[in-house]
Amino acid sequence: QGSNMNLGEALQFLREYDREASGMCFRVTSSQWNYSTNITETNKRRMLEEQALSAKFQRLSWRRATSYTWTRLPDPIVRRQLHMLAIEGRTALPEEKFNELQQLVTEMKEIYSRARICPHSLNNINYNYRQSGNCDLALDPDLTRIMSHSRDYEEQLHVWQAWRDTVGPPIRSKYIRYVQLANHAARLNGFHDAGQQQRESYEDSEINTQLTELWATLAPLYRELHAYVRRRLVERYGSEHVRPDGPLPAHLLGNMWAQNWRNLADLVIPFPAKSTVDVSSEMLRQGYTPLRMFHLAEEFFTSLGLKPMPPEFWHHSMLEKPLDREVACRASAWDFCNHKDYRIKQCTTVSLEDLLTIHHEMAHIQYYLQYADQPLLFRDGANPGFHEAVGDVITLSVSSPRHLQGIGLLNNVTDEYETGINFLMLMALEKVAYLPFAYIVDQWRWGLFAGDWNIDEMNARWWELRLRHQGIIPPIPRTEKDFDPASKYHMYFVSLVLQFQLHQALCEAAHHFGPLHTCNIYRSREAGRLLGDILSLGSSRPWPEVIRIMTRGRTDKLDARPLLEYFKPLSMWLNVQNRDESLVGWSTTGEDTG
Length: 594
Known about the structure:
The structure is a single chain. 57% of the residues lie in helices and 3% in strands. The chain contains 24 helices and 6 strands. The chain has helices at 7-36, 41-65, 76-86, 95-114, 139-149, 153-188, 194-200, 207-237, 265-268, 280-285, 290-303, 311-316, 352-370, 386-398, 401-406, 417-430, 434-450, 458-470, 493-509, 525-536, 543-550, 561-566, 568-577, 590-593; strands spanning 116-117, 137-138, 248-249, 332-335, 342-345, 472-473. The protein has a two-stranded antiparallel ribbon. Helix 2 (41-65) packs across helix 4 (95-114) and helix 6 (153-188) crosses helix 7. The longest helix has 36 residues, at 153-188. The protein is globular and about 70 Å long. The protein starts with 6 loop residues before the first helix and ends with a helix. Mean pLDDT is 92; it is low at 123-132.
């Protein structure tokens, strides 16, 4: 902070910043879009040029913001905006180092999105996608499909290892330098390290303690799920591959990162004779197209009384993978900072998974639309996990059997106990299995920033955390030449907890009666009003205030109880299924830790 306490000057500065920053944001976002939807060296160069210009502007704005004694200005809105500008620590870096940091981030993302590997065996491919025999298998859709559907132990191992061999080592040195620059920037701005700076966004010095307590509350449910899934994997692969009381090999869980186990449904579904909610084949039978899927998602939001997608969305979004150029296929929602241009980038296929992803990404767009009238600095989620929570809370309703029946994709839905347990198992494979992974990502990253361990033990610490909290081990020995954390974008543990709090609040507003997992807020204007009120605040209020509004005054804290309530029927069922298990949890041997 500086010494300037002139409120009028601060207001004038913020008005100028909002106008100029919005224009800069549009140019930078446009260049990022152009690169992501057409990966060429020319577009990359233009993007970096725009980012460099933005960096100069942000550094000047940061210097002006920190010239004020913002904590003593009388207007709380002004104080909050100046605080947000002041804690943007990267702008404290000298120009040369800031540009280096931007370049590193771009290069790491590029390695991730452009990585290709060879197939395991051409004779072993039984999937419905074009297989040329060349070493050109991309993460999405090729490797994702193999990890989702293959039950060949060696093929899964090959894909798991080859992907990490391709992505990890090239990123390792870049990530080390990134940590150094991020920490340097944070220290220039008064923080101990970049992890502390990231946690500052939560405006709570005890946020890490809260997260640890939340995970301790939720861990027993995860261990029950882990024990049940392990027993089914032993039945499928044998005890020579999966130890009956041990951790799970990371490549057998239907997902490149063992974070989401939903693709194990065929192995672990409790009542196979009862219906499940994967309606992908029905969508194909009814002739669904990607465009029809997006219109269906839009109708969900307008049924709540929320805003439709603007014309620019339909004109400029990338809804399918183009055949004539290389693109980054990871689904994402984009705000071009001009109050009218919002887009989604997605390589959509006709499936339930992609339908849910569309609703998730469109929820981000809805968030953008609702807080569009806020100052630019407040156009963000209430905390770093809020945006993801809003995206996921919509899919809690959309994926429910009652909703899928209501839109004509599922027939003969009943309230039978077995059908409900099947549905909850699918949701647990996605949500509960994700909890420890999301917790670990932040713990590992923050520990590295803080210097709790050295860079020559980054990979070992990563696998120690995964073994301790997730009960997962690598299928082959790993060394410090590997860099396995690099194979995953980060996720927020907070959003996993928060989405169930928000779901409970919206279901109460919709006057839902019955178990929480049966709630569907579709067509509830009351739920839509509450959601609109929450989203329109953006980050203009501290997030505990937003939670208090959301819960009608009951609490202003993160709360694990709605998540436990949602999965209560499944938890009781798992307790019965695991009663003869020698160990609910996992034992660890020297080989595991080695």
